[in-house]
Structure formats: C-alpha cells, structure tokens
C-alpha cells in the first residue's frame, strides 16, 4: 500500500500508527521514499529469518515460565528497529509522526509525539502475552491496538483532510461465536476494535476524504486463527506485498488518485 501511494506521488504530511502500523509508520515518516519502502519490505522478510522471534516451543515456554507474562523478550526487536530507523527522536522526523500505546497504569490510550522513537514504537507494538510491557517514563505500555486499532480519529484531531487507511485485512471476515476458550478473548477484541473503527468512521465530517486501501488478499486472515497472532512473517510475505501493491494501484486508478 505504501509503495503504491509513494509511486503515485502521494507523500504524507502526517503519519499515525498502531502496533505493527507504528513500525511501518515510523519507517515512512523517517523517509517517505521508495528506497525506504523497499528497505522496509526487506526488513520484514529478514525478520522471518532472524532471531527476533526465534526459539523453539520449549524455549518460549521457558521464557513464559520465567517471566510469567510473555513468550519473547524484545532485545532483538529493539536492535532491529534501532538499525532500521535512522532517526532517534520522534520530533526530528521529517514527517509528523505519532503512535499510540495502551497505558497500564492510566488504563487509557497514550500518544507518543516526542521522545525516543524506538521506545515509542516498541511500546505501541508490545502485544500482550507475546512481548513484555515497555516502560517509558515510569509508566508501562502495551500494544496500542487494545485502545485504538485504526486511529482515524487522531488523524482528524491533528488536522488531516485526506486519510489513507492501511489495515491488516481482517475487517471483512465475518465474526462467529467462539468455539474454544482461546477464541473468547479474540472475538471480544475483534468486536471492540471493529466497533471503535466503524464508530470513528461514521462520526467523521462529511467533507473529509477517506480511503481504505485494499490488501489484495484472496481471503482475509481469520480473526480466530491463533497463527495470525504470531510475530512472524509468512514465507509468502513477498507475494502478500505484491498483491496489496497491485490492488492498491487499481484502487488509486479507480479513484483518480
């Protein structure tokens, strides 16, 4: 999606991101160029072959037994982000960037608009149970998707008049009642995030120009498939990127963008 936009000369004045979107958003806010998009795609492909989320099932269970809260540490991910993101401070980025995380102590969404970029992105992407909470300024944060999965409202608050939504693709998958214990939380989370997003869309001013870009996936990932929660890129990551690129170019053509 990012590649299609940049190719058409659609360069952002503002980027807001949540979770994995914070990682991608920080990259494009660092340098909204095709070279950065290619580097970002390569980084995700490299993550699959790196030790960021490596380890056997027994190793992950050992980490869980030791920490009691998560399967992976975030040292390797921090190192990867530090190498991939060339600018250290959010306020020094050439494009206005903000990302959201969920504050544990505050029980609320927290927007990072200044300070250490990697700390903010790690906090926004700290999926509960997978990665540890991230402490920033004496406060602990977990994945921003818990409180604001697709933050169109924040973009409007910051003055956006045209918004391109780049999502992960489960929005079109119909919800079904849970069948197994682990699906209860997944279904509850999906209801909450979709309700928030659809409510935010419905409340946007009519004068706003909003585009929800297509993923190009033949079938959206299932919301109740535990494999969708793995912090791993599939072996077909390149194909997924190409499908989204083709579909997004077609969308932009259709809308004269």
Task: Describe what you observe in this structure.
- The chain has helices spanning 2-7, 20-30, 34-49, 57-67, 75-84, 117-124, 152-157, 181-202, 237-254, and strands at residues 14-18, 96-103, 108-112, 134-136, 139-142, 162-165, 209-212.
- β6, α8 (181-202) and β7 form a beta-alpha-beta unit.
- Strands 1, 2, 3, 4 and 5 form a five-stranded mixed β-sheet that branches.
- It is of the alpha/beta class and 257 residues long.
- The protein has nine helices and seven strands.
- α2 packs antiparallel against α6 (117-124).
Salient structural properties:
257 residues, alpha/beta, 5-stranded mixed β-sheet, two-stranded parallel ribbon, 13% strand
Shape, per Cα inertia axes: globular
Q: How many beta-strand elements?
A: 7
Number of helices: 9
Instruction: Give the helix level as a range of percent.
Output: 40-55%
The description of the largest β-sheet is:
5 strands, mixed
The average pLDDT score comes to 85
Rg (CA only): 18 Å
Low-confidence stretches at least 5 residues in length (pLDDT < 50)?
A: 56-62, 229-234
Provide the β-strand percentage band.
Answer: 5-15%
Write down the secondary-structure element order. HEHHHHEEHEEHEHEH
Q: What structural class results from the helix and strand content?
A: alpha/beta
* Gap from first CA to last CA: 13 Å
Short synopsis of the structure:
With 257 residues, this protein is α/β, with parallel strands linked by helices. It has helices at 2-7, 20-30, 34-49, 57-67, 75-84, 117-124, 152-157, 181-202, 237-254, and strands at 14-18, 96-103, 108-112, 134-136, 139-142, 162-165, 209-212.
